[in-house]
Amino acid sequence: xxxxxxxxxxxxxxxxxQKILRSFGIKSEIERTARRANEKSCSYSIVVNQDxxxxxxxxxxxxxxxxxxxxxxxxxK
Amino acid sequence: xxxxxxxxxxxPKPQSVQSAVTSAMRTSANPGRxxxxxxxxxxxTIYSARRTAARFFGMENEEKVxxxxxxxxxxxxxxxxxxxxxxxxxxxxxxHNAVMRPxxxxxxxxxxYTKAEVxxxxxxxxxxxxxxxxxxxxxxIVCTHAxxxxxxxxxxxxxxxxxxxxxxxxxxxxxxxxxxxxIDMHEGYDAVCIAGHKGLYGPMGTGIMLLSENMTMKTIxxxxxxxxxxxxxxxxxxxxxxxxxxxxxxxxxxLKKGIEFVxxxxxxxxxxxxxxxxxxxxxxxxxxxKIKLYTPMPDERYFVPVLSFNADGHDSEEIAAILxxxxxxxxxxxxxxxxxxxxxxxxEYGAVRISPSVFTSMNDMDRLAYILSRLS
Lengths: 77, 376
What we know:
The complex is a heterodimer. Chain A is of the alpha+beta class. Chain A contains 2 helices and 4 strands, in the order βαββαβ. Chain A has a 4-stranded antiparallel sheet with strand order 2-3-1-4, covered by helices on one side. The mean pLDDT of chain A is 86. By secondary structure, chain B is of the alpha/beta class. In chain B, the strands form 3 sheets. A 7-stranded mixed sheet of chain B has the order 2-8-7-6-5-3-4, sandwiched between helices. In chain B, strands 9-10-12 form a 3-stranded antiparallel sheet. A two-stranded parallel ribbon of chain B has the order 1-11. The two termini of chain B are 23 Å apart. The interface between A and B is medium-sized, with 18 and 22 residues.
């Protein structure tokens, strides 16, 4: 298992998601989503500390960020 | 050069705007396309610009801020994206060709329109005029917030309420007003179309379309967005749905600084400065026997700080050429708004337009009045 990443559909959602998580004290990074992880491709993912991924995803959904799934952080395998 | 053509584009741009554009040119990669640091940094700048615009225009959701190449594109997107065959539209008698030409072209698709007369200084009559122009097929009111020729301001809050009372869409052309009149999307406008390079002091090649919370429309441009690329259908998510193709990153970076520049001074103070200049000029010009003014003394309630005139015995372009030789930049002719000239009886010769900015001084007005006083 690599580090989990939360997939969102666009860089705007990723940046807004990052801002929201920051307001909850959760640091995050944004990266492109692996093509293999997402058939729709060309999305961005938000990566947080592994133990906060579930909490972060709930916060994002609650604040209107369209989460399209989970993947693993690029370059971690 | 004394630059009095700020309704065409503001000049000079603030130093912060110039620096942002230069910095973006030196450091930028394509935003929202790649995952490397340079691309993400550019995306962050654009996102920040979106938030700045959302805050400035009273919006909670920055995704409803759509960056476009100019106000004309924004208006085309709104008008063509929302109308369908059989629809009727009400416009004002002062519209720019950015509204009129799309509507004229759409006549062959079964779209019709009616022009409502605008009464400068009498909002009740203007609102009544729009009401009488509506019919059972009317889908939308689209109108300028302020005439780019005469500075006449329309009561858009009341016109928006009128439109919504009859179940119509209300679209605003804020090309000449954004930056000198506060615009708050809480008023309920369905879409507001804005030039980034005029009263917002951004670079040329920037525009904005602000959308209300529940607004959806067809796209008129489709293409790559850097998102959902597997699908051949245009994404539904905003702003990607309306931002196909590589954005004008240096322009948007500059526009962010331009909005911050206006925000720091406030539109009210900028307008107060420009109105002082325009009223000062008006008092000087009304004493010159050769000069013909067309509007009453501009008043903040009913105007934006723009003044157009003619001089007896001279074509408007001739006056502009004389002023140019004397180091003064103005715009003459029809200003891409034949309707506005037709309404004032100046369609044949056009008019000379004076539009100051935050950088214009009383000395500039004195010099202009002096040159005009010497016309033979």
